[in-house]
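S.,

As promised, the methionine sulfoxide run. Input:
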Amino acid sequence: MAEDLSISKGSKEEQYQSLIPQITGLLEGETDLVANLANVAAALKEQFGWLWIGFYLVKNEELVLGPFQGPVACTRIKKGRGVCGSSWAQATTLIVPDVELFPGHIACSSSSRSEIVLPMFKDGEVVGVLDADSTDLNTFDQTDQHYLGAIISLLKL
Ligand code: SME
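Predicted complex:
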């Protein structure tokens, strides 16, 4: 039987704990936001292999696609629309165990089954969101919320 590589990578918590120092190192000495978001997206994709991981940034009252890893995605999302626009409007993290049960979910990829979106704040305002999509149901939980939030706090937005 084939070895389960996900087990040899350690628990989700262990994976985040080994990833965070790497991300801290990647961000050190670089102030360009796009460069830093691009490397964070790549590091998360490499570690977890999610379908899609990336950022949308608030520009002129819309979310506009930023650095990401995964299949091509919708470029603009209005406030309150989909999981991303709802996370922005509510200024809160949304964990969606089954995207088909989220009213108004925007299906950028038909392979997406579950999702987490965290708002990113600067001076108390949401300036963007981090979005991760998985091909499995129930992928994301409070552990992801905690560590992805910690990763966002490393960014100079
Ligand atoms: N599913 C998201 C749209 C963005 S893509 O998943 C990359 C949403 O409902 O907001």
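The mean pLDDT is 95. The helical segments are 5-8, 12-27, 33-48, 82-90, 142-153.

- D.
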